[in-house]
Each structure stands twice: as structure tokens, then as C-alpha cells.
Amino acid sequence: MILDAARAAASRLFSPEFRSVFLKTLGLTLLALLALWVGLESLLEWLAWPWLQTLLPGLPSWAGWLSAIIAGIVLAVGMALLIAPVTAIVAGLFLDDVAEVVERTDYPNDPPGRAVPALHSLVLAIKFFGVVVLGNIVALLLLLVPGINIAAFFIVNGYLLGREFFEFAAMRFRPEAEAKALRRENTGTVFLAGLVIALFLAVPLLNLLTPLFAAAMMVHLHKAVSAREAVRP
């Protein structure tokens, strides 16, 4: 079921129906990451370098270049850790667009879902941003522990991304409380699907498509889970 959902989602990523959503998602994700980079770099130049000159007067000119290189490395690591929360926010903005395309093209005989209210989507996206940032801070601390650092990345992001994307997809057809209950009843399935999303997220450049892939995959998974629930005694 999970592999079928992932395969169906991947097959639609570059289809004509996804082109508009893809361009909006990619553009906003790149813009957000660029804005974060410029903002953090400016903040470091404004605060860190003058403070360093005051603390250690008479620094040679090459110290400025060395500081810039170190700051660039720190920022690059920071951007890598922020990909998950940034893509989560973008997904919150465009999940309904993706879901509508998948439902219309792959499930034309089923009743269409209802778009999650914009304000509610924004609140959930902001809430999830905080959760993912916290989860990745924990994962960063676990990087210091040999043997579990990579596993920590996949477990943390697999759980968080799987939970949020599945609930978003489910809330197109169910009240929020019922969507959360369905996710809890299928915790193992949702977590394994989240691991697939985390694996997708770990691939450079391809990870910018995470919102499209995750949203489409969870629409398929929710359809499969709902069909299974319907035939249970």
C-alpha cells in the first residue's frame, strides 16, 4: 500500500497537471531559503564580526576571510536542517492544490475533498514548523552520538512529516479530530510512509519537490486506508 502510494505520487511529479503547482512550490521554497540565507548572513556580519574585532583588536585582514568561510559552512549546515520545516510550510500552502489534481485525475468517480480553510492551514503549518524545528534540534544533538545520527534524522523527520501530511490529506474528508484518530489507528503505516518522505527529503535538489511528493503520496495513502477501513467488520 505504501509503495503503491509512493509510486503513484512519483509518477505524477512532472506531469502537466502538476506543472503550475510545481513552479509555485519550487519558487517559494527557493525564495524562502534564499531569504533565510541572506538574513542570517547579514545578521552574522552585523553582530559577529564587530564583536570579534572588539574582543580581539588588531586582527589581520585574512581573519575576515576565515570568518566568512566559517560562517558560510555554519549557514550551509543550518540551511540543510531548515529544509524540513521550510518544505512543511510550503506544503501547508499548496497541499489542497496537489490534492485536487490527484483526486480529479486518479479518483474521478469519488466525491472531491473540501479545501482546508486558509487560516486553519496557516495555523497548522506554523505549529508544525515549530515541531519540526524542535525535532531537528534533537536530531542535531544526536549527531554527536556515533551510530545513531543518520537514524535520528530519518526517525524524527519520518514521524513528523508522515503525521502532518497524512492529517492534512485526511482533513479534506474528515473533521480534524477524526483525521487525528485515523492517523493514530494507522500509526505504523503512516510512520513507514513518513520514512519514504524522509528518504525523498534526504536527496539533494530532489528534496525541493518534497511538498508535491508528500502531499500526493498521502492523498493516495489516505484513499487506501479509508477503503481498508470501510470493509472492516
From TrEMBL:
<feature type="transmembrane region" description="Helical">
    <location>
        <begin position="21"/>
        <end position="40"/>
    </location>
</feature>
<dbReference type="InterPro" id="IPR059112">
    <property type="entry name" value="CysZ/EI24"/>
</dbReference>
<feature type="transmembrane region" description="Helical">
    <location>
        <begin position="190"/>
        <end position="214"/>
    </location>
</feature>
<keyword id="KW-0812">Transmembrane</keyword>
<dbReference type="Pfam" id="PF07264">
    <property type="entry name" value="EI24"/>
</dbReference>
<feature type="transmembrane region" description="Helical">
    <location>
        <begin position="62"/>
        <end position="95"/>
    </location>
</feature>
<keyword id="KW-0472">Membrane</keyword>
<feature type="transmembrane region" description="Helical">
    <location>
        <begin position="140"/>
        <end position="162"/>
    </location>
</feature>
<protein>
    <submittedName>
        <fullName>Sulfate transporter family protein</fullName>
    </submittedName>
</protein>
<feature type="transmembrane region" description="Helical">
    <location>
        <begin position="115"/>
        <end position="134"/>
    </location>
</feature>
<keyword id="KW-1133">Transmembrane helix</keyword>
